[in-house]
UniProtKB/TrEMBL annotation:
SUPFAM superfamilies: MFS general substrate transporter (SSF103473). Keywords: Ion transport, Membrane, Transmembrane, Transmembrane helix, Transport. It comes from Kalanchoe fedtschenkoi (Lavender scallops). This is Solute carrier family 40 member. The lineage of its organism: Eukaryota, Viridiplantae, Streptophyta, Embryophyta, Tracheophyta. InterPro entries: Ferroportin-1, MFS_trans_sf. GO terms for molecular function: iron ion transmembrane transporter activity. Its main location: membrane. It is a multi-pass membrane protein.
Amino acid sequence: MIHLNSNILEGESLNLLTEETYVDNILTTLPVLTEAEQNALAANPAHPAGLYALYATYLAGCLVEQIWNFAAPASIALLHPSLQPVAVMGFFAKLAVVVGAPLMGKLMDQFPRVATYNYLSTVQTAAQLLSVAMIVHAHSSITTSSSVFLRPWFITLVCAEAVGSLCGLALGVAVERDWVVLLAGINRPTALAEANAVLSRIVLLCEIAGASFFGILLSKYDLVTCLKLAAGLMMWSLPVVVLLTWYTNKLSSGVLDRAKCSQNICNLNQDVTCLCKTSDTLVTGLDAVKQGWMEYVQQPVLPASLASVLLYFNIVLTPGGLMTAFLTQRGLHPSVIGGFSGICAFMGVAATFISASLVQRLGILKAGASGLIFQAALLSTAVAVYWTGTLSQPLPLLFFLCLIIFSRLGHMSYDVVGSQILQTGIPASKANLIGTTEVSVASLAEFVMLGVAIFANDLSNFGLLATVSILPVVGAAWMFCRWIMNPTDVQRSLFYFDPLF
């Protein structure tokens, strides 16, 4: 016999009702961030002090690299009256990147970030110093000759430039695809976008400073003296970069020491451990290259990446080695050539600010499309001006250079937009692998164009090279526009949806 007390049941029910009401009240009174507070949180980096130290590290390394990127082709152009030596150097440098970039990315995903970065910085500086020594030797011991390609100094120079390029791309990918995401925060889009813009400004400002610095030196001193000054700057910057790298990790509470293994790689079964143990994933170089290309093709934001790759076919109508050699052979003063490269970089800096306004008004996808279309239109006009045959006159030449300068606005606008699309669309555990593989594909594009430039090395073929270079730029604009016209594919590709699309 069970005797129930109705008073107890009534009391219990009343208590349950009271608790349920209390829970409802809690759920309705939970603190929710306002839109302004959410925007402030999204704009606040996860490790602001470490991010500023990263900027300083990137600045110290990038300045020397940009000085040498301008000095090397200008120095070779003064030794040989043809575009061929510069094209050969670039050809083998891109070949090294095409072959070795996926392997570099795989190794960087396996080894500690800070130690790997410092090691690659040391190797890059050593390669640059060796290149300086070879050019100084050539300038003091050889006259202009068509047999320059068989000289030991030139072969050594080509090998050193290939090693330096491979290390440089690995360092750039590590900062731009991996480190900046950790320090800014992948879930803080505004802070990440601002960090990307700052890194782009650093690169472009270093281009301005590097080209202007070496151009002014060439106008006042002989080539050997300028190269020795550049070598001294390289040796000074290496310990600064190493120290700042360590300081960046310290200010960010050791976030760079965090394991690169993504938690979602682990199998759901309890008896299976994480697949990303270092001792089990060090594979052969061929397997690493194969894996890098497979991961690249399978990435969700492949169309945006391919648009960036197509822009690399344009090796002529850019402030690069071939344009520097072309203007040098036409007799322009070194300070003018340096000023041209500097102004192009300044336009890129301006584009980092313009792109933010475009994203706010048009959305990130349409902002990228507008940048590509703007660049394609201006460069097409520049090619048309060249084929008029009036570049021997000052005014048409100035107009030709101005079109190239302003086209950098569109190029860098898409560069900023594309970087954020790739950062948010690629898993963190594969950032270096896919990033270096993308650079490898882009280098393959430059590799093909430099191969064409080796055979069409006469100045009379410059118009043909410019025409071939502009076609992929137009193709990139067309492909990206086709991609964003299909909202379903875009939403599947990105982790977020652009409300302004």
